[in-house]
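Good morning C.,

I know you're traveling, so I'll keep this short. The sequence:
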Amino acid sequence: MEWKTTAKIVDSVLPGETVLMEYTTSYIPEFLLRFFVDYTTEKNIPLVIDDDFDALYTILTNARRIGLTIDLDRDNVYVLKTGGKFEVGNVVVTIPFHPDSRVYLANYAEASSKALQEIQSPAINLVLGLEELFLSVNNPLDAYQMVIRMQKFIGNKKRKAFYVVNEEAMKNLPIKVLEELERISTTVVRLTSSSAGANLKVLKSVNPRLVGMETVIDVGRWG
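The tokens, ready to paste straight into the viewer:
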């Protein structure tokens, strides 16, 4: 597998940053999950996965279908679970979803803060299923309160946050928030499918040396 350049990009992301990873419909979430599991294991740092509405279960199911092994049974992998019914991985916190964003966000902030206090920092925080979270809110005010809450997490040096979102799904949401997410994110990355696995390009970064950087996550040797 070839992901050394991708690892260098992740290394260059500073604690407290928020990275938006936009992908086109494909198996890119599966490749990214495998990458982050391998990356954090090799670096011996914690991986905290936000699993919104069974996104993690779906990704693992798809990975099995394509013969991609993803081992979450590791001491450095933790799961924060919101909604859904399938618990996979080391679930350390379960956060009930509430349609009132103020209630949900208060519950999430309290639960995630307690969980991160117990985990060595800075951790890699991989957020999966954000599209479903925004789809579940009732009105534009609730959606923008969620965006504001995400913005407030910027600067939290206990984590490097990576939000994995389907670009097309986000654009088709009843409440359009993708441009706002791009605005508040310190780094924006676009991933597209390739014969080798996934092409990655940095569109925006607080680090000028990263802007325009391109690489390939080659999954040819993964099994």
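Safe travels,
E.
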